Amino acid sequence: MASDPIARSPTASYQFPDTFMWGAATAAYQIEGAIDEDGRTPSVWDTFTDLPGRVLNDDTGAIACDHYHRYVEDVALMARLGIKHYRFSLAWSRIMPDGRGQVNEAGIDFYRRLVDCLRDHGITPHATLFHWDSPQALEDLYGSWRSREMAQDFADYATAVVSRLGDRITHWMTINEIVCFTHLGYGVGKVPPHAPGTVVRSQKEVWQTSHHALLAHGLACQAIRAASATPCSIALVDNFSVPVPIAESPDHIAAAKRAFHTLGTNGGIIFPALTGAYSPVLLEQLGADAPDIHADDLNTIFQPLDALGFNVYTGNYVRAADNAQGFEVLPLSASYPRLNMPWLWVVPTALYWGIRHVSETLGRGNLPLFISENGCASEDILTPAGEVIDCCRIFYLRQHLKAAHRAVQEGYPLHGYFLWSLLDNFEWAWGYTRRFGLTYIDYPTQARIPKASFNWYCECIRQNRVV
Predict the structure, then answer these.
(1) CA-CA distance, 172 to 191, in Å (whole number)?
(2) Are strands 439-442 and 414-420 parallel, antiparallel or unpaired?
(3) DSSP for 193-222?
């Protein structure tokens, strides 16, 4: 077979370019623990988890993976895995206990130690400024994302961080998944599943929170560029909804592009961030529920970006339809493959189509992209021999990496892949019942046990291809 030119072709071997970034990702509240140490004050997630019934089994992030004390061990795991890039987030209330004003230098020092340890192992740090854990102090002061003040406070926080860590970190991400802490954190007439868990009166109020988050992103981009002493890369991270054509024929592809405007919250988050305007289709659909937009807001939101981080786990099949929308979102039957989350349908081509939509539907074909999260929860069991044989995770990841390879082969500007997640961790409202990690965490002992998928991903990195 070695002499067969087809077997040696890039498509057959799924080989990636030598410059491709292989990484893994985590988030502060999900792994750090140490919620009241060294000056850290509560975030909205600390408050949310203290309310009975909000999180499965009433789990909290008080200890999580104890990464705050075990980061040296975790960086050694990264080195063993072979990644050269690590995406993590910083805890706003660890750095600014009041959410604004005075900086807690002890909090900054933790991230200095972490980043120095990464760099000592030849691992490039990629820091996300905000991954959902906003300071409770700002919730108490003015209601967090319901207020425009949140955007300016976030920009001031960005300045404080970058002016102190910009000598060590040159890859910044402003905000992670706006939809999750706005549209899933504020609910009309019912308690939403995510912190701060605020009940509001109208859909307009919900859209106002995501608009304020977009403003925060734009102001933070400006703040990072002003505060960084060295040239740096700035990205937004979004988990926009992906319409996947049921078949790659012209009519279904056109239908998928039409669907992109109104699927999920795309038209009101990724559209203004990457095009400078809300989708007109969405605004017509929202009517009086559209957010209030001040005169210069869209200019602030539409900042030049060095890259876009795309978080992708699943997708939606669509087809052309003879209706007013011109498309139809197709339901999936109970027999369709799904992993250990109610929403985690296995749609690997969503990764490819998400990238293609950025290029073609949004017209941003020259914007570099990286997969900032991709992974799955599986029902991982520790065997009597002390192993976790997570074949379903390997299956899931292999298919998604093949979709990533297709995007690269077709010339789309995909430059890297951060697997979610390095460690099992606190999975928000699901507590510790859902495991996304390459590494099994035995929570009572905090033992780290690499799974079969850890070794598989290690080999992909070593060979720079899908194995």
Answers:
(1) 33
(2) unpaired
(3) SSTT-EEES-HHHHHHHHHHHHHHHHHHHH
Q: Please say whether the dihedral angle defined by the alpha carbons of residues 99, 103, 105 and 106, taken in this order, is positive or negative.
A: negative
- 229 CB burial (10 A radius; 0-12, 13-18, 19+): exposed
Instruction: State pLDDT tens for residues 161-171.
Output: 999 999 999 99
Q: List residues bridging with 24 in a β-sheet.
A: 86, 419
Active site residue 139: no
Among 177, 284, 328, 360, which one carries the catalytic annotation? 177
Three-state DSSP at 236 gives: strand
Supply the pLDDT for residue 350: 99
| Annotated catalytic residue 373 | yes
Partnered with residue 245 across adjacent β-strands are 318
**pLDDT digits 0-9 by tens, 408-457:** 999 999 999 999 999 999 999 999 999 999 999 999 999 999 999 999 99
Helices 349-360 + 391-409 axis angle, to 10: 30
Is the Cβ–Cβ distance between 282 and 203 less than 8 Å? no
Can you tell me the mean pLDDT for 106-115?
Answer: 98
Residues paired with 418 in a beta bridge: 23
pTM: 0.97
Tokens encoding 301: 């939101």
What residues does 171 pair with on adjacent strands? 126, 233
Rounded Cα gap, residues 20 and 462, in angstroms: 12
What is d(CA 175, CA 221) in angstroms, rounded to the nearest whole number?
10
**Cα distance between residue 307 and residue 375, in whole Å:** 21
Predicted local confidence at residue 6, as pLDDT:
41
- Percentage of the chain modeled with pLDDT above 90: 97
Of 446, 398, 459, 461, give the one whose Cα is nearest residue 64: 446
State yes or no: pLDDT of 4 exceeds 80.
no
Q: Which residues contact 256 (CB under 8 A, 6 or more apart)?
A: 243, 244, 245, 318, 327, 353, 357
For residue 127, list its beta bridge partners: 88, 172
User: Catalytic one among 32, 37, 105, 373?
Assistant: 373
| Nearest Cα residue to 126 out of 373, 344, 367 | 373
Average pLDDT taken over every residue of the chain: 97
* The amino acid at 97: P
Residue 407 and residue 14: Cα distance in Å, rounded? 11
What pLDDT score does 11 carry? 64
Instruction: Return all residues near 273 (Cβ < 8 A) that are at least 6 apart.
Output: 214, 217, 236, 238, 301, 302
